[in-house]
Amino acid sequence: MSNTNKPSLHTSLSPTLLHLYDLGNSIVVIIDVLRATSTIATALYNGARSVIPVDSISRCMEIGKQIQGVTAGERDGQIAEGLEYGNSPFEYPREFIEGKTLVLTTTNGTRLLHMSLDKGAKEIITGSFPNLSAVCNHLIEMKKDVILACAAWKDRVNMEDSLFAGAVISHTRDHFSINCDSSHIVEKMYEKGKKDLFSFLKNNNASHYHRLMNFGLEKDIRYCLNPDGANVLPVYSDGKLVAKARN
Amino acid sequence: MSNTNKPSLHTSLSPTLLHLYDLGNSIVVIIDVLRATSTIATALYNGARSVIPVDSISRCMEIGKQIQGVTAGERDGQIAEGLEYGNSPFEYPREFIEGKTLVLTTTNGTRLLHMSLDKGAKEIITGSFPNLSAVCNHLIEMKKDVILACAAWKDRVNMEDSLFAGAVISHTRDHFSINCDSSHIVEKMYEKGKKDLFSFLKNNNASHYHRLMNFGLEKDIRYCLNPDGANVLPVYSDGKLVAKARN
Question: Which of B181, B186, B204, B210 to mutate to test the interface with A (most CBs of A within 10 A)?
């Protein structure tokens, strides 16, 4: 196939940059590696019926009550007041979450998801290292234009979401036409760091690495950087994320 | 000196991200490597009295007439209609530009400069590889907070401006406290590419590399990636950029 016949792939490094890309005909991959999209993949992999992403604690409590869901969210590394669980993927093993609905508070990721909806994204999925292969296989199979949308941190570009975008590109590049410097930058960085992503974040002073380490969450970081531990494809539809049935 | 006593350094990868940073007490370095800030350094190094950056062709013609300046600007790789010269640094040798004022049309860079003014930047200078050392030495000497502001390309992050930000960080990092993932990302990329920046842009499909190569401007690209060929410090004041007198 000639290069020009391939679908395009772009990387938006921050929600603030999302408006630069044409979402109308694209699959948008929401990326919030530490830890929202890793936890979403894990809960769905372990049998959660769905995950409802919400942008505030009050909305989380409200929906949780309506549907008798599991409410989750953190502020400054602690379970937020009024909610039941936190943001760690380790809080959602199969024996707890199977058959339940998780209502998850995630500021950056939920906002980005709503922005993507507003801009008419054709399909929205979520991506993280625990479901890297599921995301890559889906993108290759669908043959549609792709926007890798990093949730970032309060709109500031972050290293871990950029690294995941780089990982996706590294695994799918032959299937896309990539005319996007952001994509080339993150792929280069991923190639440099892929042997040991944990050390890469540490050695390069990634701000979120320090933030979570200060909360004693090394185990979470290591899990969230490890590929395919919860290899499911979360697809957004009608207010919630559900695992796509395998073919 | 302890880390916390050092001034801070942040990198804004696109004008769209500039509002995230506190410019009020900072030196802002405007970066538009291909080719605006490289040409500004070159013209001043070769004795131009000043460079007036403007954001439109009509404004360029108007000011050029008022002050009898040299008008310059391009559209799609050609000298813009109504102007006299183009954006190439090679158009401004000493025998031509000495003692004159250059009125330069630069869309991305000028907009970023005006944004920085609006946000109350303490000082605005321009940076490019031809004046890399002058910029680094000034930043080290001043001991103020720094924002490296990439002009990007129509707000999309680009590789060459990111590489220059990385070069500045690589040369000044010990003098700053850097809690900014964008800065760590671009420094990493610069370390990877610094041995041969031209090949790095080429091999990583930098979009601006292709754009200028299509215009037959390989010589310009090579010049604009070469450190210290026009090692002067352009400082913005009162509508124009002038070379800072050496101590």
Answer: B181
Amino acid (one-letter) located at B178:
I
Q: How far apart are the first and last CA of chain A?
A: 26
Gap from A67 CA to chain B (nearest CA, Å): 38
User: Running DSSP on this structure, what letter comes out for residue A215?
Assistant: T
Residues of A at the B interface (Cβ-Cβ below 8 Å)? Answer: 13-14, 16-17, 20, 153-159, 162, 178-182, 184-185, 188-189, 192, 204-208
Residue B185 has its nearest CB partner, among A14, A159, A181, at A159
Question: 3-state SS of A133-149?
Answer: HHHHHHHHHHCCEEEEE
Residues of B in contact with A182 (CB under 8 A): 156-157
**Contact (CB<8Å) B17/A156:** yes
Query: Would the CB atoms of B159 and A185 count as touching at under 8 Å?
Result: yes
Closest chain A C-alpha to B10 CA, distance in angstroms: 10
List the one residue out of A45, A48, A18, A50 whose CA is nearest residue A31.
A18
Nearest CB to B184; choose among A178, A181, A205: A205
**Measured on CA atoms in the order B14, B201, B234, B3, is the torsion positive or negative?**
positive
Place of tokens 């009550």: A65
Q: What percentage of chain B reaches a pLDDT higher than 90? A: 89
Length of chain B, in residues:
247
pLDDT digits (tens, 9 = 90+) for A46-86: 999 999 999 999 999 999 999 999 999 988 888 999 999 99
pLDDT tens for B116-132 read: 999 999 999 999 999 99
Residue pLDDT, tens place only, A134-175: 999 999 999 999 999 999 999 999 999 999 999 999 999 999
Pick the residue from chain A with its C-alpha nearest to B13: A157
CB contact under 8 A, A179 and B207: yes
Going by the DSSP 8-state scheme, the letter that residue B55 receives in this structure is: S
Q: Is residue B1's pLDDT more than 60?
A: no
CA distance B151 to chain A (A): 14
| Mean pLDDT computed over A17-26 | 96
Q: Collapse the DSSP code of B235 into the 3-class scheme (helix H, G, I; strand E, B; otherwise coil) and give the result.
A: strand
With tokens 């000196």, the residue in question is B1
pLDDT of residue B247: 54
Q: A184–B178: do the CB atoms touch at under 8 Å?
A: no
Helices B159-172 and A181-193 pack at an angle, to 10 degrees, of 50
pTM: 0.94
B48-89 tens-digit pLDDT: 999 999 999 999 999 999 999 999 998 888 899 999 999 999
| Cα–Cα dist B205/B202, whole Å | 5
